[in-house]
Amino acid sequence: MRGVDTDVASITKSFVNHVQTSLARQASNLDDLGAYQAAALSVRDNLILNWNETQLTYTRKAPKRAYYLSLEFLMGRTLDNALLNLGLKDQYKDGVQKLGFSIEDLLDKERDAALGNGGLGRLAACYLDSSASQELPVWGYGLRYKYGIFQQLISPEGNQLEAPDPWLDNQNPWELPRLDVSYEVRFYGQAERLNDGTPRASWTGGQEVLAVAYDVMIPGCYTKTTNNLRLWESKPKRGFDLNSFNAGNYEGAVESSNSAAAITSVLYPNDHTTFGKELRLKQQYFWTAASLADILRRFRNLGKPITEIPDYIAIQLNDTHPTLAIPELMRILIDEEDLDWDKAWNIVNNTVFYTNHTVLPEALEKWPVPLMEHVLPRHMQIIYDINLFFLQAVEKKFPGDRDRLGRMSLIEEGFPKQVRMAHLACIGSKKVNGVAELHSDLVKTTILKDFVEFEGISKFGNVTNGITPRRWLDQCNPELSDLISKTLKVEKSVWLKNLDKLEEILPFAEDARFRKEWAAIKQRNKERLAHYVQTTLGLTINTHAMFDVQIKRLHEYKRQTLNILGVIHRYLTLKAMSPEARKKVNHRVVFFAGKAAPAYYIAKLTIRLIVNVARILNADPDTKEYLTVYFLPDYSVSVAEVLIPASDISQHISTAGTEASGTSNMKFCLNGGLLVGTVDGANIEIAESVGESNVFFFGHLTPDVEDLRYQHLYHPIPIEEKCPALANVLNKISEGMFGDGGVYEPLLNTIRQIDHYLITDDFDSYIAALAMVDEAYLDKTEWIKKSIRTVAKMGKFSSDRAILEYAESYWNLEAVSIAK
Ligand SMILES: *Cc1c(COP(=O)(O)O)cnc(C)c1O
């Protein structure tokens, strides 16, 4: 197959061609948006050829393939990433410059693909990048939401407002519609067992919806391998329902077509909470059913016996959202392939893998049995059958242990009864993993403890999350990436795919010239961030202060409240100082960004408090030189790419045992920002890697949490006694220092009363940790050494390491190289 020519002259020619033909515009009269589109289409030509060759090779070689099922893919922008992975950035930079454009301006025209809420969706995106970069035959499957995560606006009072995210409005050059790849998906209707001596049933009637494929090409880094992310869009099976028209029911006919399209219309904006909404259940089944139908069609083309499915297919469930893959595969094998129950179950059990992402009770998915019976009657029958056989086996191993049966059942008793999706995902999978060492231990000792006792420990493992160093170092921090290459005298194509090589920069921590370059890059990244804030918000930032960043979804367990209360404490301390004394204080700029779920009242109140604290502090002539606060609206992957390289410290301060892993902690440390955190999630492994002397830990440990919560409930200590500094801060808020104090009472009361997230227990040690940060920052040389040492030891946190663990220890998958 002939490749695309990639010299600068060919690039400008291809660019102009796309302007004239694909866009039907004139090159002499083109704006930046048009130029971005032409550049994207031109880059896409390269991807398409590589994609074709990759898929041909997979078909010809028929390797085992893995499928990553994720309801969210938080991809961000594509053009820069594609240019870097293809090694064409410099050529395109020159090419568009010759035509009178700046590549940076064009890159800036692209809208983020934001089909995800936060960490879980971004993880899926990193894993696709790593799969392609490590030449693994992995496809992603997800939904093509018409609207991604909402755009966040902040009202003058400081309230979060949500606006829709019409990300497809300007056309999307990165997807290929595959109108010929479509499947019918059924909802509702009747399921009747055949009772013919087989476990078969027939499922008929109800609503049928069409799933249509859109393919997104996923280029690997410096390799031809270009994998696929297939996203499904829902469409009415027929444009309209003729019977309804004939019956004179025009409105009903239109409504039925509306409801089919509604399935993929919007991403649910909840992170770490479940809602039990019918449309969400329909999204989950629609996506799972279409993906499985597609996977099995590909398998059938191989002409292999159905029992060999586990030799050719591994299906990874990203959290419990795609758990219906388990009863759906059973349904296909039994009702359509006529397999007996045990054979079918054995196939499922050797094909499916489950990653747990949380132990928080409010995040564990449960579906009401009546809703399941209504929407998916056949699947509910299958789940009951799975449960029956499963509980019989448990009873055999633990005779007479009725409590255990109740705890382990797939069905939770109550009104209504509910299906416990984590239990179903666990017993239907070959292996189960958590996403950091501590989290995986908690999974085994808390929510799945009974399952470990029943099935044995070897089924349960850990794969610590990772991040792609392509986007999260090379793309977002090009100067640092260049400095590393220059210093190591190693090509990016080598060290970006073997991140342990970073360790070789360790000796340069002792090299004064290297440190100077390192510090200068950090300074320029701060100026880049300041420029972004200036142009988007019109605010001027002091780039000579320490940059302290906490950016992540707003959630009580992540404790942005602890941070803002700490800021107020610092402010009150500054106010009480003499002007002379203040001059000795470390200047600090505190950044927040993050979205709250639209119905999450306390989280939204936290945003309001942050915005109003910023308003007061940034205008106070006594202190604004020493302490300012910014809440940057509409946090996204692209905003993260500007903030992260500019940070001196970042905060990952969840209540111990609540953050499964965290991945932004890894992004900051890979960019030379130091970590302030609790002993939680991947913070622990980061500290093990970079050395405890290079992180700032504080707070109670996981084993203490249960006792502390018990104390809060049954032996509460007045907050004035327990933590006077905090009591003072809360009182100042109540008294109206940041606007109408009454507004914040519901938020303050969560702390004064139950304090489930242990703000009162951790406040003093948090303040002490920040004092250590100030102390350490005084010695600039030592600080830069810490920064260098941190980056040097971050190799483990490449998502390449993580995806190779899945490939080797879970999926039994081998790399497939694509001929040059
Ligand atoms: C990495 C990332 C996250 C995850 O952040 P945590 O701090 O680990 O929760 C969320 N949102 C975006 C846009 C990210 O890039």
UniProtKB/TrEMBL annotation:
Coiled-coil parts of chain: none
Cell compartment(s), UniProt: Cytoplasm
Signal peptide range in chain numbering: none
GO molecular function: glycogen phosphorylase activity; pyridoxal phosphate binding
Cofactor(s) it depends on: pyridoxal 5'-phosphate
Pfam families given in the database record: Phosphorylase (PF00343)
Superkingdom of this protein's organism: Eukaryota
Catalysed reaction equations from the record: [(1->4)-alpha-D-glucosyl](n) + phosphate = [(1->4)-alpha-D-glucosyl](n-1) + alpha-D-glucose 1-phosphate
Enzyme class, broadest EC rank: transferase
GO biological process: glycogen catabolic process
UniProt KW keywords: Allosteric enzyme, Carbohydrate metabolism, Cytoplasm, Glycosyltransferase, Pyridoxal phosphate, Transferase
InterPro entries, per the entry: Glycg_phsphrylas, Glyco_trans_35, Pyridoxal_P_attach_site
Any one annotated GO CC term: cytoplasm
Annotated positions of the N6-(pyridoxal phosphate)lysine modification: 667
Gene3D superfamilies: Glycogen Phosphorylase B (3.40.50.2000)
Family: Belongs to the glycogen phosphorylase family.
Protein role: Allosteric enzyme that catalyzes the rate-limiting step in glycogen catabolism, the phosphorolytic cleavage of glycogen to produce glucose-1-phosphate, and plays a central role in maintaining cellular and organismal glucose homeostasis.
Name this protein carries in UniProt: Alpha-1,4 glucan phosphorylase
